[in-house]
Every structure is written in structure tokens, then in C-alpha cells.
Amino acid sequence: MIEEFCKDFDFEIKGNIVEINNGFYLSNELLEEVRNKNSEKPKNVGIFLGEVKKGRFSPSIPLLKMINKHTKKKIIVDKKAAWLFICGRDIMERSVIKSEVSKGLCIVQDESGDFLGLAKIEKKKDIFANNVIDLGDYIRREK
């Protein structure tokens, strides 16, 4: 599942991908060695890449940041839209500065090229893309 998701962005993960309880982690040889020697099975190992929820792959922010560096599937939004996006809002068409995709999932960046999150382009009325996950998600979950 994770490979299919990454393939949509022309990105390939280099390293060991470990699946533990529907979660995917990027591991290395040293972590694998420690994991295999330990009699107790760990709940996680390495960098969290995402998880399977209701039969679908849900990416993590660290995975999206890795993809951001290599993909061309991006939209760039203005300063106001960047703030609204990390607050969980969708992206209005008038806020898009540049779009390199016309449909499907894409990475969202601000004018400076900073990563903001993941959106799905679904042009409806004034909405250009729906927020899938953003940097503010962690903060909102802490409430």
C-alpha cells in the first residue's frame, strides 16, 4: 500500500520498510538488529511513514516531507491561504499561485517553498483543493 501511494508521486523509499500493527516505519540495519535481538516485539521502530485505516493508506507528515523534496505534484498557495490551510481549511482557487497538477492528491507549499501538507484537488465552486492532512493536525489533536 505504501509503495502504491509513493508511486503516485514518482517517489521511491530507500531503506527497510517495517510493518507493525498496520503502521509502516522506515528502519535501518542497526534498528533491525536491535529489534530482532529483543524478545519483546516493539510497537514501533524508526520513522513513522503512515498507517492503514479502514483499508486505505494514511500518510504521515514525515513521509510527506520526504515526498515533497522529490515530487512535481505540488500546488503553491499565497500567504493567507497557507495560514488557513495549516488551520485545517480547504484551498480557494483564487489563492493558488501555481499548480503543477490538475487532479488527485498533491503536496501543498507556501510561496517560500515550505511544506504545508497534502490536499486533494476537487474543483467545486470556489474551492480548488480539499485539505487531507496539514502541519497543524498535530496541534489540533492535542486538544
General description of the model:
By secondary structure, the chain is of the alpha+beta class. The chain has two domains: 2-67, no CATH class; 72-141, PUA domain (Archaeosine Trna-guanine Transglycosylase, Chain: A, domain 4, Roll). 25% of the residues lie in helices and 38% in strands. It has helices spanning 2-7, 29-37, 61-68, 79-86, 137-141; strands at residues 16-20, 23-27, 47-53, 56-59, 74-77, 91-92, 96-99, 104-109, 115-124, 127-134. A hairpin with a 2-residue loop joins β1 and β2. The chain is elongated.
Question: What structural keywords apply?
Answer:
38% strand; Archaeosine Trna-guanine Transglycosylase, Chain: A, domain 4; elongated; 5 helices; 4-stranded antiparallel β-sheet; 6-stranded mixed β-sheet; 143 residues; single chain; alpha+beta; 2 domains
Main β-sheet description: 6 strands, mixed
Annotation field: number of helices: 5
Approximate strand percentage: 35-45%
Strand order of the largest sheet: 6-10-9-8-5-7
Global Rg: 17 Å
Based on helices, strands and strand pairing, what is the structural class? alpha+beta
- Whole-number average pLDDT? 89
* Counted beta strands: 10
Q: Calculate the terminal CA-CA distance, rounded to whole Å.
A: 30 Å
- The ordered string of helix (H) and strand (E) elements is HEEHEEHEHEEEEEH
The gross shape turns out to be elongated
State the CATH class of the largest domain.
Mainly Beta
Uncertain parts:
none
